[in-house]
Write a structure and sequence with these properties.
The chain is of the alpha/beta class. About 35% of the residues lie in helices and about 20% in strands. The chain binds iron/sulfur cluster (SF4).
Length: about 450
């Protein structure tokens, strides 16, 4: 059987989609090639969030095509995902060596399409159509991709987004919100638990909108909270996380779920994007700074150890110094454990790309540096405050930076590096924090909970 190499660009959704395609191909007998040089099929799963991300994938494919067509003309080349969706056939017109273009609702057809191309039944395939029910096709897992059993898995609960933030391409590449049934997600999580997974992260572009139309409210609880309750019932699962919620849909029922559901760990990544109401309006975010701050306050009332992180865009079109200072003051007020800062870059085919008052790069760089410094100072203080505490971690495997040591995550989603071994993988452990580095804690295992 042929071997396949999948290179993934972009977000966790893309990683999850690639895992789906890889696991379907492995089930069919394909092997996973360690590099593109050894593969019979090379697939690039693409990201459209910035023009630069698209360019990167296009350049990569150009280089692969130049290389393989000379030495291995039979290698099958394909694009998948967001850029495949937005550009479709144009990709083949531009790069005639490409055999396959699969959109964001068609990942599950990859094995059949590859069979057809490899058997010579079809020459080129472009499929970027919409497909009813496609949100339910991202459900298979590899779990031992690196030779070790995974202890944590991502579970896709929905696809698409209806929010249409003015800077974002997602509603165009991923389509309208479509949610999977609660029973399907629970069945998938139950199977993961049976295969040794201890933690699931429920995944979607806007998980707080999960099931809004398909399921609706019940006893004052949103469909998403109903889903959290159902997943919480699964024996063997120890931890539940989710990403990404939207402040607009972050209701009191969700805040309260943290106090009722002990497996729902005290960690919230809530993208705020700006501290200025004027900018939030221009971004079409659908909430105010006040509303965002009140969510954070409520979450910390429910659990003072709540780890809160966010995403922020600096240099959005029309952002005045006063708007940016509002963002700085929000960062001080919210005391984020960490924040991921993005310099605004115009995304083709989004409303913000043609707004007047696009800011010069120097201003974006300067604001990025000022905000980063503040976020780092606050983060360092918060991480230092953990020193001397005993925290519970889920040991995930060797530390990426120093594979001789192990790493795990606290419930509030902070990385802890400790001296350990493979026997710790998958253990929920107590660790005494002895030192704090840059967004990393170091600790000694205290009592190992072996059951
Ligand atoms: S809510 Fe998120 S995914 Fe949806 S349009 Fe806004 S930024 Fe994009």
């Amino acid at each position: 059987m042929p071997s396949v190499y999948i290179k993934t660009y972009g977000c966790q959704m893309n990683e999850r989609d690639s895992e789906q395609v890889a696991s379907q191909l492995v089930a069919k007998g394909y092997s996973l090639a360690p590099s593109e040089a050894m593969a019979d099929v090379i697939l690039l799963n693409t990201c459209s969030v910035r023009d630069a991300a698209e360019q990167k994938a296009l350049n990569k494919m150009e280089n692969i095509a130049a290389e393989t067509r000379r030495s291995r003309p039979d290698v099958v080349l394909g694009f998948m995902g967001c850029m495949a969706q937005s550009r479709g056939r144009e990709l083949i017109d531009r790069l005639p060596d490409v055999d396959l273009v699969i959109g964001t609702q068609k990942f599950h057809h990859a094995p059949d399409y590859l069979d057809d191309i490899l058997a010579g039944r079809r020459k080129r395939i472009v499929d970027v159509a919409e497909e009813a029910g496609s949100q339910s096709t991202i459900r298979d897992h590899l779990l031992n991709g690196n030779g070790h059993k995974a202890v944590s898995a991502f579970v896709s609960i929905m696809q698409g987004c209806n929010q249409y933030c003015t800077f974002c391409i997602v509603p165009y590449t991923r389509g309208a919100e479509r949610s999977r049934p609660i029973e399907d997600i629970v069945a998938e999580c139950r199977e993961l638990a049976a295969r040794g997974v201890k933690e699931v992260t429920l995944l979607g572009q806007i998980v707080t909108s999960y099931g809004k139309r398909e399921i609706g409210m019940k006893d004052g609880k949103s469909a998403f909270v109903q889903l959290l309750e159902a997943v919480h019932e699964i024996d063997g699962l120890e931890r539940i996380r989710f990403t990404s919620p939207h402040p607009k849909g972050y209701g009191d029922d969700l805040v309260q779920a943290y106090s009722r559901l002990p497996k729902l760990v005290e960690s919230a990544h809530i993208p705020v994007q700006s501290g200025s109401d004027r900018m939030l309006k221009a971004m079409h975010r659908g909430y105010t700074r006040k509303r965002f701050v009140s969510i954070i306050e409520k979450l910390r009332e429910v659990n003072p150890r709540m780890g809160v992180t966010t995403d922020i865009i600096v240099g959005f079109p029309g952002e005045a110094e006063a708007d940016f200072e509002e963002t700085l003051s929000l960062a001080r007020e919210a005391q984020f454990d960490n924040a991921f800062i993005f310099k605004y870059s115009p995304r083709r085919d989004t409303p913000a790309a043609i707004l007047p008052d696009q800011l010069p790069q120097e201003i974006k760089e300067e604001r990025n540096a000022r905000l980063l410094q503040l976020v780092n100072e606050i983060g360092a203080r918060k991480y230092r405050a953990c020193v001397g505490q005993r925290v519970q971690i889920l040991a995930e495997g060797p530390s990426r930076k120093n594979p001789a040591r192990m790493m795990g995550r606290t419930r509030s989603n902070k990385i802890v590096v400790f001296d350990g071994s493979e026997r710790h993988r998958g253990q929920i452990m107590d660790v005494n924090v002895t030192r704090a580095g840059s967004f990393t804690l170091y600790g000694d295992p205290a009592i190992i909970n072996l059951d």
